[in-house]
Amino acid sequence: MAASLFCPLKIRNVEIRNRILSTGHQSFLAVDGRIGDALIAYHEARAKGGAGLIIVESARFHESSISAAPEVHAHTDAAIDGYRLLAQRVHAHGAKLFGQLSHSGRCSQLRTDGVRGVVYAPSSIPDNRFHTMPRAMPTAMVQDIIESCGEGARRMAEAGLDGVEILVSHGLLFAQFINPQTNRRDDEFGGSFENRMRPLTAALELCRNAFGQDRVVGIRISAEEHETDGMDADLVLDVCRYLARNNFVDYINTTTGSMAGPGGSIHVVPPMELTHAYVAPKAAAIRAEVNVPVFVAGRINQPQEAELVLAKGQADMCGMTRAMIADPDMPNKARNGQFDDIRACIACNQGCIGHFHQGASITCIQNPVSGRETRLAPASPTLALKRVLIVGGGPAGMKAAVTARSAGHEVILCEASTQLGGQANLAAQLPGRAEFGGLVSNLARELDQLDVEIRLKTKVTPDYVRQIAPDAVILATGSVPFTPDVDGLGEIHCTSAHEVLGGESGLGKKVVVADWRCDWIGIGVALRLAQNGHDVQLAVNGLHAGQNLQPYQRDVLVGQMHQAGVSILANARLFGADADTVYLQHTITGDAILCDSVDTLVLAYGTRPEILLESQLADSGIAILLAGDCLSPRTAEEAILEGMRAALSLDTNSSLEKSS
Predict the structure, then answer these.
(1) What sequence ranges are listed for the domain NADH:flavin oxidoreductase/NADH oxidase N-terminal (predicted)?
(2) Terminus-to-terminus CA distance in the chain, angstroms?
(3) pLDDT number for residue 83
(4) Of 42, 167, 328, 348, which sits most exposed with the smallest number of CB within 10 A?
(5) DSSP 3-state assignment of 47?
C-alpha cells in the first residue's frame, strides 16, 4: 500500500531509510540560541516514530539576522555541542539529520530588548508584510554573509550532521539576491543572472567544503512565491536547472509561498482551506528538468497522499511535518499498515505555526505532548485504578476519557446530545473547515479502540452521579451561547452564530453579523451567508476581522470574504437594534455607526461556561476536576490539553482535591 514511501533513498553516501521528511520548521524550543533538551526530545520523538529524514529548524548564521526570539543560532562554535547531541539522539533511532541555514533579509522585524534592529537586504526594496525598509548591504557585508554561511555549515558538519540545506525559499535573503525585482545592485552580486546567483553558489561551495563528498548539500526553494514582486515559476526553474547542472546541489527541496506579503505567506504553512498536496505538480515540473532528487511539502498529511505523489513521479521525498507534529508515530504506523490508527493532521495551524506567531513554543491541538516532551507524557498504566465519570463529550471530555482509560481507569463518558464532538462539530460547518471534524473522528477512534463506555443522550444530575458512585468526576460540560444585554434584540430578527451553523433557515436578505470574538466564528458565518446569496456586513469588535486568528488562516478568510462581497466594519461594538436597524458604536471614539434596512442580526458573541452541575456537586464530597469551556470558554486546543491534564492528575493527586 505504501511501497514507494518506504523505499530507501541514497544521496551520495547518505542512505535515508524511507521517503518521509520532517522539514525545517521553527519550534521556539531553543534556549539562548542553542539546541537543548526540549528541542532534542522533540526531534527524537519523530526519529523514534520512523521519520526517514529530519531537517532541523533554520539556524541564524550571521549577526545581522539574530533577534531575541528563541531560535537556533549557528554563528559561533557554541552551537556545536547542541547539534552533536541532537545528531546522536536522532541517529540512535535510524533517522538522518540535516541542518538548515537561513537569513531573512528584508523579511524581518528584528528586535533586541524591545529595540528595532537594522534590517539588511540586497537593495532598499520595502517589504510588504513586515513593512520594513531595509538598508542595502555593502559589498563587504555580502562577502561576510557568504563566509558566515560556510562557517555555520562547518559547525553542523563537525557536529556529525548528515547534510545541510540553504533556505532560498519564501522570499528570504538568498531569494532576494536572485530576484531582479529585489536586487538592484551594480556590483558583482547584482545585474546578470550569474551575478545574482553568486551569493548562493559561493555559499553552497563553502557548504560542500564543510561536508565533503560523502555528505549532502541542498537547497529549499519556493516553486512559486505568489507575490507581485516575488520569483515566478520560470525564474525558479532557471535557478534549479543552473544549480543542478553545475553540481552545486545534491537535492532540491520544494515548497511554495513567500514571507514578503500576505498573498504569499498563506502558502508558507498552508491552512486547511488549501488543497491537499497542491505543491506536488510544481515540484514535478522542477523534477522533470533536473538530475537530482526533488523533495516536496505542502498539505501532505496522510501516507496515502505521499505514496501517490511518489508513485506519480512528482517527487522523491515528501515533507510531512505537521503530520508528525500531530502523530510522531505516523511513519511506523504506515509502515505496519496501521493507517486507521494515525492521528491525522487537520491543518488548523493553531498549535504549530499559530504558537510561533504568538511567540510560544510549538505544539499540536490534537497532541499536547508535541513540544512538551520533556514536561508532559502520555498516560501510562497505573496501579491506583479509579472509577471515573466524565460529563461532556466534547474535545475536553473525549481527551480526558482517552487519557484516563489509557492509564487503566474504569471510565464512563456521558454526553447529553446524540453525538460526541461538542462545538467542534459546529466548527466543521464553517466554509472550508470540514477537515476540523477530523479532530472528533480521531478522538472517537481512540475511544473505540480503548473500549470506553459511552452513554449518549444522557443528562447527568447529582442523583445520576450518586448512582454511578465514581471516585472522581471530570466535568467537561462545555459552554452555551452568550447573549449580550443590548436593547432591541427582541424587536429585530435576531439569531446566534451557533444556530446558523446548526442549520437555521429563514434568514433575511440583508444580514449584519456582530462579531465580538474576532475569530473563526464571525468570519466563517459571514462568509457562509455571503456565499449563500445574502448581503452581509461583518461588524468586528476589534481592529480588524480575524484579529485573534493565526495570520495565515486569517488572510485566507479575509481574501475569501473580499471575493464574496462581505462588507467589514472594524472597531464596531453592538449597541442596540430596532425592527430594521442595527446600532453600532465605534470602540475607540464612541461614535454611532448605523446599519439600516437590516433583515437579520446574527450574534457571534461566544459562549459562557456551563456550571450548573459543578455548583450542584460542590458539597458532594466527590473529587471534581474541570476541563475545557466549563472552566473558561476558549478553543479546542485548551480543551484537549486540560482534558488530558485532568485525567493525568487522577494518578498524581492521591487526595484528588477539587479543581477550580
Answers:
(1) 4-338
(2) 49
(3) 99
(4) 167
(5) helix
Closest by CA position to 53, among listed 83, 23, 79: 23
3-state DSSP of 126-185: CCCCCCCCCEECCHHHHHHHHHHHHHHHHHHHHCCCCEEEEEECECCHHHHHHCCCCCCC
The H-or-E segment that residue 440 falls in is: helix 438-449
Over range 564-580, report the average pLDDT: 98
DSSP string, 515-535: ESS-SHHHHHHHHHHHHTT-E
DSSP string, 441-505: HHHHHHHHHTT-EEE-S----HHHHHHH--SEEEE---EEE-----BTTTTS-EEEHHHHHTT--
Residue type, 433: R
Give residue 68's pLDDT: 81
What is the DSSP annotation of 331-386? Answer: HHHHHTT-GGG--------TTTHHHHHHT-----SS-TTTT-TTT-------SS--
Per-residue confidence at 1, pLDDT binned at 50, 70, 90? low
User: Distance (Å, rounded) from C-alpha 496 to C-alpha 504?
Assistant: 9
Region 252-272: mean pLDDT is 95
Of 415, 440, 413, nearest to 425 by C-alpha is 440
User: How is residue 245 written as a grid cell?
Assistant: 547542472
Residue 48 is predicted with a pLDDT of 99
| Residues 6 or more apart in contact with residue 85 via CB below 8 angstroms | 35, 40
Strands 294-297 and 251-255: parallel
Q: Say whether pLDDT at 655 is over 50.
A: no
* Residue whose grid cell is 524591545: 114
Nearest in space to 182 (alpha carbons), one of 268, 259, 282: 259
Mean pLDDT for 520-527 is 96
Residue 656 has pLDDT above 60, yes or no: no
Segment 319-333 mean pLDDT:
99
Cα distance between residue 570 and residue 514, in whole Å: 11
The mean pLDDT value for 392-396 works out to 99
Is 238 within 8 Å of 102 (Cβ atoms)? no
**pLDDT for residue 340 is more than 50:** yes
Task: Return d(Cα 176, Cα 502) in angstroms, integer.
Answer: 48
The domains found in the chain, sorted by start residue, are 9-358 (3.20.20.70), 387-481+609-652 (3.40.50.720), 494-605 (3.50.50.60)
SS (H, E, C) 599-618: CEEEEECCEEECCHHHHHCC
Q: Is the pLDDT of residue 320 over 60?
A: yes
Q: Contact 225/232 with Cβ under 8 angstroms? A: yes
- State how far the alpha carbon of 499 is from the alpha carbons of 292, 423, 487, 535, in Å: 54, 12, 21, 19
**Cα(180)–Cα(260) distance, rounded to whole angstroms?**
15
Residue 433 has a CB neighbour count (10 Å cut-off) of 20
For the chain, give the percent of residues with pLDDT over 90: 93
In the prediction, which pLDDT does 114 show? 79
The predicted-structure confidence for 586-608, as pLDDT tens digits, reads as follows 999 999 999 999 999 999 998 99
pLDDT of residue 658: 37
Distances in Å between the alpha carbon of 49 and those of 20, 42, 54, 255, 374? 11, 11, 12, 24, 16
* Cα distance between residue 239 and residue 179, in whole Å: 10
The Cα–Cα gap between 203 and 209 comes to 10
